[in-house]
Amino acid sequence: MATLLFEIGTEELPSWYVLAVKKDIASLMAEKLAAVQLKHGEISSYVTPRRVAVLVEDIAEKTPLRQELRRGPAKAVAFDAGGAPSKAALGFARANGVEATDLIVQDADKGSYVFARKELGGEEAAKLLPDLLAELLSELPAPRKMRWADVDTPFVRPVSWLLALLDEQVIDVVAAGQKAGRESHGHRFLATENVNLGHARDYLNSLEKAYVIADVSAREQLTLKVAQETAKQQNLTLVNSGDLLTEVSHLLEYPVAVLGSFERGYLDLPEEVLITTMTHHQRFFPTRSADGKLAPYFVAISNNRVPDDAVLCRGYEQVLSGRLADARFFWDADRSKTLAEHAKGLAGIGFQRQLGTMAQKLARMAKTARTLADLLGLSQAEREVLEQATAVFRADLSTQMVYELPELEGVMARAYALAEGYPAEVAQVLEHGVRPNKPAAPLPAVKVGAVLAVADRLDKLLGFFAIGKKPSGSADPFGLRRDAIALARILNQQGWPLTVSELVEAAAKSYQDSDLSPQSLEAAISELAQFSLDRVAGLLAEEGIRVELLRAAMMDKPAVITASRRCHLLQAMSQEDEFGSLMMLYKRAANLAKEAKADIAVNPELFADEHEESLYAKLPRAKAGIAELMSLAEQNLAPWDLGQSPKQPLSGLEAGIAAVLELKAPLDAFLDHVLVMVEDETVRNNRLALLTEVRDALRALGALEELEGL
């Protein structure tokens, strides 16, 4: 067993590619080795801005030996009357590298044929790997590849060197204009001499001595460590974003931390402005003092160690000072107008050519929000907050600060509202109404903010669907899937009892005076409702809910919170051994119940068979058990962020499930021994009514006919 190392040295890679290629090269290497049937152990990948490497443990010396039978001509064609091989048999033997006397005859599906037994495998790894590794380099996925000089092989950046070792042996790989050797390169500035590797297993240690931390997770940990230690020099704590740490560590090979400062006067700017300016624009780590307040210091991470850190620090401080001065100017200039005045500027910002300006969109959205307030029964105090918020919602889009830092939309609306003297409740709603602003971002934490967020997304989704701009295949240029996912998450977290169809129809009322045709709007209502429910199903699938359970829970298109609770309840019930059998009986009963007349109730006096009485006697207990299960689902499964599973699992279901499963035996006996479709119409209708009660009782859990054979 040997260790394989393959390193692709490049010009500086973009940070987004460093993260992606780490997974891609490991999975592609596994595919390549499997294709040539070369056994191996663990595969590890290492990426920095200047290199992409993969290390494979326990590579087999050779591929395993195996035999393969190759079918040739029919026996009757392969031999003449005397049993001598024909030209067809001789040609087949020659093509497969065997003697004609070694051919064997076996029966196949359509008669007897001659077969050649081929000995395959045994290829040496050292001979297979050169071509395999060259293919690996050329097939590494990237959204944009480039060509350079006269090299035919495109790659995401020009390839500067190749290293390929099988233990101590150099593998003769030629690709992307480079021939592989045993030399790598250390840090561009801190280690100018080449790194000569004696063995593939020396890779990480040798590079670390040359100031290259090739392991991504180790580099992240070291980056965080040096940043925290530097902050502690002034008794500060780091404001650490996981995304920022990942991005910074993907931009360097060896982290060097520098502590810088900025003018204390900038601290009267909103905290979010300072943090965003430092993190998004400069990739600096903000800091907090012991009292928890933002401090006038930052930690910058450099990819180089210089003789005088003060020179480097002054450069960082000058750049940040310019950024903060701009932020100060925007803050002061924006506050020279009221939010109401900024809201007037929305008339000059286009939303979509056929759907009007942002001002027109927000006018429609305000109508939808009022309709939702009625449907949800908002209190008078909540309505007053809603009215104040809708008047200036998204007004910060016309401010200079949000134009420069669009990620601060909503945050700046809150800051400007507080500075202007709006109630804190209104300011909070202005911020929460734009949530979530990206995947996995926080959801609105206040009800009125959720109303605005839902109204906003419904207006966009319905409008784009009505003008024929809905997603097609993988194309979604307007981010409608993202908006529908956000809608599903908000509805489940809020636990609103409204169905998606009711919400979409509420939004459609705001489009009645628009230029959209009634036909296109009507079609959009139906399509959007199903589109949104599909997103709900996708998020529930991420929680581990099976497809058939999703169909059963969502067939009647209930409220999102109802569907998600049903799914988890059915998931728990499906673990019971007898549940699948009950579902099969349920479907038979439900099919018969289709013949029942709607206005006929069960009359126990018409029972002519003991099995009718037994089934009817178990119904009250089963109904009580179902009601108990639904109540427990509501109590245990508090509204949650869809896709992340409930915080508290279902419990205490045993008694309720037992009560439901008690229907199995009497229902089975009824269906086996009682003839439902008898000639006597009165008896027939009574038996159909009994099956209808059984169906309706169980249907409270969902369309259980989807679970037949579970």
- Strand order across the largest sheet: 2-3-1-7-8
Task: List unreliable stretches of 5+ residues.
Answer: none
Mean pLDDT: 92
Question: Helices and strands: which structural class?
Answer: alpha+beta
What does this structure look like?
This protein is α+β, with helices and mostly antiparallel strands and 710 residues long. The chain has five domains: 2-62 and 124-209; 69-119, no CATH class; 216-335, no CATH class; 341-542, no CATH class; 560-707, no CATH class. The protein is built from 26 helices and 18 strands. It has a five-stranded antiparallel β-sheet with strand order 2-3-1-7-8, covered by helices on one side. A four-stranded antiparallel β-sheet has the order 13-15-16-14, sandwiched between helices. A hairpin with a 2-residue loop joins strand 9 and strand 10 (178-179). Helix 12 (380-392) crosses helix 16 and helix 18 packs antiparallel against helix 19 (518-542). The model has no long low-confidence stretch (mean pLDDT 92).
How are the secondary structure elements laid out?
Layout: E1 2-10, H1 15-35, E2 43-48, E3 51-59, E4 66-74, H2 75-78, H3 87-95, E5 104-108, E6 111-120, H4 125-139, E7 159-166, E8 169-170, E9 174-175, E10 178-179, E11 183-185, E12 194-196, H5 203-209, H6 216-232, E13 237-238, H7 242-249, E14 256-261, H8 271-281, E15 285-288, E16 294-302, H9 309-334, H10 339-344, E17 350-352, E18 356-357, H11 358-376, H12 380-392, H13 400-404, H14 411-420, H15 424-432, H16 447-466, H17 480-494, H18 500-509, H19 518-542, H20 547-554, H21 560-573, H22 579-593, H23 610-636, H24 654-661, H25 664-673, H26 681-699
Antiparallel strand pairs: 1-3, 1-7, 2-3, 4-6, 5-6, 7-8, 9-10, 11-12, 13-15, 14-16, 15-16, 17-18
